[in-house]
Amino acid sequence: MGLMNWLGIGRTVANVAEVFVENRTARAAHEHVEHVASLNALSAEFARPRGGWFDQLIDGLNRLPRPLLAGGTMGLFIYAMKDPVSFGARMQGLALMPEPMWWLLGAIVSFYFGARELHHFRGRKAAEPEQVAEVMRRVREVEALSEAGAPEESSGNAAVAAWRVEQG
């Protein structure tokens, strides 16, 4: 085994083998780094300080339009089944509304939801420098692991760990 390592044949064979069969340990390490980074991003997204009573009131009011629109639409269906004549009269009144007013209503609703989405998009903080440094450190660790070969000790195989201790 020492001659193969001295000649570099062992690593060459491993490199050739990785062309045909992926290095599962390196892949698992990469997936772990990605998983940890996504969890950190998720926790950073939801870690915002709670505001005062006014901020909580406004947040509550900002959450009302979508449920009210959905509930109101369901209410229209119920109203149409309960009193079709009155419902029809109101719908005829809506049909008489000029088209520019429909465009204005569409613009208001679109801008409201678009501005809300833009606010949430802009509100996401860029990754803090410490987080970026931590992710880069982990990426370098994974690259070092993939260059050095698979660390069998981490798999819990006592025989392999004992053999590595013997090899020095």
Automatic annotation (TrEMBL):
The lineage of its organism: Bacteria, Pseudomonadati, Pseudomonadota, Alphaproteobacteria, Rhodobacterales. This is Methionine synthase I. InterPro entries: GTA_holin_3TM.
